[in-house]
Design a protein that fits this description.
Catalyzes the reduction of dTDP-6-deoxy-L-lyxo-4-hexulose to yield dTDP-L-rhamnose. It catalyses: dTDP-beta-L-rhamnose + NADP(+) = dTDP-4-dehydro-beta-L-rhamnose + NADPH + H(+). Belongs to the dTDP-4-dehydrorhamnose reductase family. α18 packs parallel to α19. The protein is built from 24 helices and 30 strands. 49% of the residues are buried. It is α/β, with parallel strands linked by helices. It has an 8-stranded parallel beta barrel with strand order 1-4-5-6-7-9-13-14, surrounded by 5 helices. It has a 6-stranded parallel beta sheet with strand order 20-19-21-22-23-28, sandwiched between helices. It is globular.
Length: 723
């Protein structure tokens, strides 16, 4: 009987040198300080884990001065938990400062580290001495991203062969201690497509993608097309002959495949964004993601690449990284596409052992390949931005796959962005339903069709491939239980997002009854009906549930003390909602601004400045909230199964006056034309959080506001549009 496909886990543990700076992902995600992370992994049902035993961490100063204390505790704990470790010895690094990948001594030095590890931990039987050698060689020797920052083919090929030689010598050293130790050799696997003009370049890259595995399998002999290329670039023939012995041929081939792994080359560069432009010295061309091209779907994706690897090597295979840094719905879609692709190949007879969910505690700054310290965090199954790692929807998926082999979620009724029409640089005029993976995809129900927030949800749900219905007060009166029950029975949503409400704060004092009906009674009614049907509910509250006198930003556990009718209505709504439905997600937010609503504070300020008038703005301190960030982050949290009260505003408190000045400066106006107004001391209703900083920084939000708005405020023609 064929054993089921396993779910493995992986920790992003790169220690990469960029110039003289070392990046250590275990430190940056906080995993280094949390041995209890291993318990969380075990609770998911994962029983095989890619775990670091890294050279740079154990022998940073000298190859014979070792410190195993951190690893002793963790590897012992993994044994207690019944988790089998795949020991990674060098993960994208160039090694400690006393060597580098172009150093002829590098392979022997890594093998010495491998011997130390095997002697210290004789129970370890799975090893990856060098993670992704071909990818690391390209990034370190050809593209210059990482140390030693080579930018030539000679450096690239010498590094690659040095890595493969190090793998052979390391496995020999390990097997002296543990003869049955197995090599799990990982690398990225993609494919290059091209126009007919560039077919020669695509063929070259498609041969090159197999080179690391070919070398380790002893396939690069004198008849191999790359034998002469390697020698011509200064690779010692003795090293190639050593690799011909193939005594470190992979026992398991680990395939890592990302959406960017497949490329399309096109000499018609003006069809593509400039950042894709490049060349090879013979032709100039764009190098773009192949998923953005109208290629046959069967030619792309993890199943196609796994099939090629199986047919070439006929060795056991595992997907050793399955990760997509995107919205939570697309993260789930990608994981399931990889899982389903692996099962498809198994059904065809391929020996596919496992899929590895990557990376369990996320990664930092991989959108810049670690070359910039922006603190850009991509969560995995756990989000480390909370006081303790918080399970995301990927954790629920991983647990289901590990324990049952199946997982379902409403977002899986639609394909990921890479299979929807938004992927094209030139989308077709008529949108296709070919991305529907169910006859009638399950949908969200969103209230507030006439409001800023409701329309923003609808727009971004369309973009994210989340089917939904957007209702106005005429479609559903949220304060009428019969109307709500009828609408939910009609539309059968998998979750409800309440973006409706009475927001005319200045009028609320004179219209208390209307304010409480919409904001309080209506929200309570939705909560009760959703509770009866066990449907997730997202609803909104405000920073105005606080009086602004605390003299620091408010967190979720602070006592409410509203001073306005609007604030009272929201505070009372929070109480009633959570009393009626303890699984509801209540988001306190503040001071909306966005690119699609011309009536928010920033648009008003810039409109006034564009007319040549100075403006006054309050000194009260708030937490401005960029609507696209609010919508996208709250959708992720909804999909994760978030509940209770969360504060959700962009990180960075500011006064209304300073917000206006920052906006003025970015728009090209003199910020001194913004004058502070109001009482001193000012009130401070800024929001912070004790549950996790999920929202981007305010400065980033302001930059994106201007990029997304596409308005040139100093242009006379745009002043009319501003009005």
């Amino acid at each position: 009987m064929k054993r089921p496909l396993e779910l493995w886990g992986g920790l992003e543990c790169t220690v990469a040198r960029v110039g003289d700076d070392y990046r250590d992902q275990s430190l940056e995600t906080g995993h280094h300080e949390r041995i209890e992370d291993l318990d969380r992994i075990a609770e998911l049902g994962i029983r095989t884990l890619r775990h670091p035993v890294l050279w740079e961490r154990i022998s940073p100063e000298s190859p014979d001065r070792t410190d195993f204390s951190w690893h002793d505790a963790r590897l012992e704990h993994l044994q207690t938990l019944g988790i089998r470790a795949i020991a990674g010895l060098c993960h994208h690094g160039s090694g400690p400062r006393y060597t580098h990948m172009l150093d002829p001594a590098w392979p022997d030095l890594l093998a010495r580290h491998a011997a130390h590890v095997a002697e210290r931990y004789p129970h370890l039987d799975l090893y990856t001495p060098v993670n992704e050698p071909l990818t690391t060689a390209r990034f370190s020797g050809l593209y210059g991203h990482w140390y030693p920052h080579g930018t030539t083919y000679e450096a690239f090929l010498k590094i690659l062969v040095n890595e493969c030689k190090a793998t052979v010598l390391s496995m020999r050293a390990i097997r002296k201690v543990r003869p049955d130790a197995q090599l799990v050799q990982t690398d990225d696997m993609g494919k290059t497509f091209a126009t007919s003009t560039l077919a020669y370049q695509a063929e070259h890259e498609n041969q090159r993608r197999f080179l690391g595995f070919d070398l380790l399998c002893g396939m690069v002999d004198r008849d191999h097309p790359w034998w002469s290329i390697l020698l011509d670039n200064g690779v010692p023939q003795a090293d190639l002959e050593l690799l011909l012995e193939a005594d470190a041929a992979p026992d398991i081939i680990g395939i890592n495949h990302y959406l960017t792994s497949e490329r399309y080359l096109d000499e018609r560069m003006n069809r593509y964004p400039e950042h894709h432009w490049g060349g090879n010295g013979r032709h100039r061309y764009a190098d773009a993601e192949a998923v953005r091209m109208p290629l046959p779907s069967t030619d792309l994706g993890p199943a196609a690449r796994l099939r090629e690897v199986w047919e070439r090597y006929k060795r056991p295979i595992a997907v050793t990284e399955a990760h997509h840094g995107s919205t939570r719905d697309d993260q789930l879609r990608w994981l399931m596409e990889v899982w389903n692709g692996a099962n498809t190949l198994r059904d065809e007879g391929a020996d596919i052992r496992a899929v590895t969910v990557w990376s369990l505690y996320g990664a930092v700054d991989w959108n810049s390949l670690l070359t910039r310290r922006n603190g850009f965090y991509e969560p995995g199954p756990f989000d480390v931005r909370a006081p303790e790692p918080r399970r995301t929807a990927l954790a629920h998926a991983a647990e289901a796959l590990a324990k049952t082999g199946t997982f379902d979620h409403p977002v899986l009724d639609r394909a990921g962005w890479w299979k929807r029409d938004i992927r094209f640089y030139r989308p077709p005029a008529r949108q296709s339903r070919s991305c529907w993976l169910a006859d009638e995809p399950r949908q969200l129900l969103i209230t507030g069709a006439t409001g800023t927030l409701g329309r923003a949800y609808s727009r971004l749900c369309d973009f994210r491939g989340l089917n939904h219905v957007l209702l106005s007060r005429r479609d559903m009166d949220i304060a009428d239980p019969r109307s709500v029950a009828k609408a939910l029975e009609c539309h059968r949503p998998w979750a409800v997002i309440n973006a409706a409400g009475y927001v005319r704060v200045m009028e609320a004092e004179n219209d208390r009854q209307a304010c409480f009906r919409e904001n309080t009674s209506g929200a309570e009614t939705l909560a009760r009906v959703c509770a009866d049907l066990d449907i997730p509910l997202v609803t909104f509250s405000s920073d105005l549930v606080f009086d602004g006198t605390l003299e620091r930003p408010y967190v979720e556990s602070d006592a409410v003390n509203p001073t306005t009718v609007y604030g009272e209505s929201k505070a009372e709504a929070e109480r009633r909602i959570l009393e009626a439905y303890d699984k509801a997600l209540v988001l306190r937010t503040s001071a909306f601004f966005g690119p699609w609503d011309r009536y928010n504070f920033i648009w008003s300020i810039l409109n006034t400045l564009s007319k040549g008038e100075d403006v006054e703005a309050s000194l009260d301190v708030v937490s401005p909230t960029y609507v696209p960030d609010l919508v996208n982050t709250s959708l992720d949290l909804l999909i994760d199964g978030g509940t209770g009260i969360w504060h959700m505003a962009n990180t960075g408190e500011t006064s209304w006056r300073d917000l206006a000045a920052m906006a003025a400066e970015r728009a090209g106006f003199d910020p001194e034309r913004v004058i502070g107004a109001g009482d001193d001391p000012a009130l401070n209703t800024a929001l912070s959080t004790e549950r996790g900083l999920l929202m981007p920084r305010l400065e980033s939000a302001l930059d994106r506001f201007f990029a997304d708005s596409e308005v040139e405020w100093s242009d006379e023609a745009m002043k009319v549009a501003a009005e």
